[in-house]
Amino acid sequence: MISGMHDWNLLAEEIRHWGRELGFAAIGISDIDLTEAEAGLTAWLETGYHGEMDYMASHGLKRARPAELVPGTRSVITARMDYLPRAADAEANLADGRRAYLSRYALGRDYHKLLRNRLQRLADRISARVGEFGYRVFTDSAPVLEVELASRSGLGWRGKHSLLLNREAGSHFFLGEIFTDLPLPASPAVADHCGTCRACIDACPTGAIVAPYRVDAQRCISYLTIELKGAIPVELRPLIGNRVYGCDDCQLCCPWNRFAPLTQEEDFAVRHGLDSATLVELFAWSETEFNERLAGSAIRRIGHERWLRNLAVGLGNAPPDDVIQDALAARADHPSHLVREHVAWALDRQRKT
């Protein structure tokens, strides 16, 4: 129960200040009318672009209706936290077919717990000011339209690659939300600054950005290497190159990411040399080593089997090399059919190249 009368504009400013104190780069506030997003969401789902991500469809239009997802919601606090670590040059890594490329966001510790804890602390600060209030914190924990909410709250605009863009920070940041029953005033939205640029569309290795602002997840390398549980489609494997966990190509080519700041969060710093590791050395990790070295990492969630699957594809795309072929041959009789099938493909490709 919210006690007393409050100056909601003043509270909104205080929330932004508290957010900065907690390490967020920016805080915004959105209203809950996402009606304009419903048609696009419905069309995207009906086309099947979500692939195996059934959770995207299971909540239906609740995703675009905050007050149905969390009854009583009157406003949404959105938060941005920069994650770009100081790391080996991404493009040089991609250009070296013997190295493994992992998305920049996954080089350090998993962001979910850190971001959720910071949002909870922000909610606690609000509670201390206004009394008990209704809220729920989200960090990828439910099918929230976070880019839509973030763009409506002034944190940036939706880029043609479907990620949020910000003039001062590019797109290398995480988003989180607090759904609240507080009547907070919405922040002003910002204009779209993509103009006629189509760099991200042209750069996508698999052609997953099928139209401006529309991504076919079934072709997206992030989906193929993280979300997809089974075999990676054979026709897409050569296009994946050495990208073994996620893909940053649409961000690396974006002019706005020239301004992306390095993160100040120690948890996002590179661990275990993942920014410059070779495919062969990572492929040699046992399941125990995988679990121990990637404890606290988002990568661990895909499991050792899919880790080997992804690396096998990368090794198959690498320049022909006896060391690579020996590494693949050592996994040819792996207990997992999924791993064996991708290793066989990789060996065949190595020997034919």
UniProtKB/TrEMBL annotation:
Annotated binding of [4Fe-4S] cluster 1, by residue: C194, C197, C200, C254
A Pfam family hit: Fer4_16
Chain sites annotated for binding cob(II)alamin: R63, D140, L164, L175, S222, C247, D248
Textual note on the cofactor: Binds 2 [4Fe-4S] clusters per monomer.
Residues the entry annotates as binding [4Fe-4S] cluster 2: C204, C220, C247, C250
This protein's UniProt keywords: 4Fe-4S, Cobalamin, Cobalt, Cytoplasm, Iron, Iron-sulfur, Metal-binding, Oxidoreductase, Queuosine biosynthesis, tRNA processing
UniProt-annotated location(s): Cytoplasm
Major location (coarse): cytoplasm
Cofactor(s) of this protein: cob(II)alamin; [4Fe-4S] cluster
Keyword Transport part of the UniProt annotation: no
Subunit structure: Monomer.
Identification of the protein by name: Epoxyqueuosine reductase
Lineage: Bacteria, Pseudomonadati, Pseudomonadota, Betaproteobacteria, Nitrosomonadales
Gene giving rise to this polypeptide: yjeS
